[in-house]
Specification:
Rossmann fold, Transketolase_BS, alpha/beta, metal-binding, 255 residues, EC 2.2.1.7, 1-deoxy-D-xylulose-5-phosphate synthase activity, thiamine pyrophosphate
């Protein structure tokens, strides 16, 4: 559809009504232009349109206009929307497969710019919706990771003997797993490459408050300003989203 994202989403809605299974592949930042169509033409009708959201998170050299900072925040509040955040290329494949076979409403898979991690590829299978995975058992601290920073989170978890959870789904959130982590740990840390405000960590906060669970939570993600141009690793380092920066943020918060 070239640079006509609004039309692309409405066209996909028409295809879905006609019995097709459209996949709308759009950069995170450009999906902002089609927000009205996502809500009115797709979500309200609960159409099985899958959004393959490229450039989710820090894009680096493309600059401020292309940073995928807001998609989790602006999609999370839409009813009937499933949001998946893969941590490597294998999870990305599984989630794209899951979204394509999800028939009761729209779904979104947000993945970053760049190369895969080298993860082995498993046979395609639909994932159970809203279920995370505990990647490491630790003590006192539970890191709830949403998406691309899992490798950095794993280094931090090892250094701090923390529990590490690959949450995988922003919506539906794995509420049971979050509440289990809150009950068995002294503090929770949420981690995402999206704006902190309104992001996946905000969903964790909302759940804990709704269930009256009093546990300290540190939300780590993109700050409340437009991210400048720079290399991806350079920006992550500047924002404290590399392994050293994440550990430093947690230690400073705990001090």
């Amino acid at each position: 559809m070239a640079i006509a994202e609004q039309h692309a989403v409405t066209f996909a809605a028409g295809l879905a009504i006609g019995g097709y299974k459209p996949v709308v592949a759009i950069y995170s930042t450009f999906l902002q232009r089609a927000y009205d169509q996502v809500i009115h033409d797709v979500a309200i009708q609960q159409l099985p349109v899958m959004f393959a959201i490229d450039r989710g998170g820090i894009v680096g050299a493309d600059g401020q206009t292309h940073q995928g900072a807001f998609d989790i925040s602006f999609l999370r509040c839409i009813p009937n929307m499933v949001i998946m955040t893969p941590s490597d290329e294998n999870e990305c494949r599984q989630m794209l497969y899951t979204g394509y076979h999800h028939n009761t409403g729209p779904s979104a898979v947000r993945y970053p710019r760049g190369n895969g991690t080298g993860a082995p590829l498993e046979p395609l299978a639909a994932l159970p919706l809203g279920k995370g995975i505990v990647r490491r058992e630790g003590e006192k601290i539970a890191i709830l990771n949403f998406g691309t920073l899992l490798a950095e989170a794993a280094q931090v978890a090892e250094a701090m003997n923390a529990t590490l959870v690959d949450m995988r789904f922003v919506k539906p959130l794995d509420e049971q797993l979050v509440l289990e982590m809150a009950a068995s740990h002294e503090v929770l840390v949420t981690l995402e490459e999206n704006a902190i405000m309104g992001g996946a960590g905000s969903g964790v906060n909302e759940l804990l408050m709704a269930k009256r669970r009093v546990v300290p939570v540190l939300n780590i993600g993109l700050p409340d300003y437009f991210i400048p141009q720079g290399g991806q690793e350079e920006i992550r380092s500047d924002l404290g989203l590399d392994a050293a920066g994440i550990q430093r943020q947690i230690e400073t918060w705990l001090a």
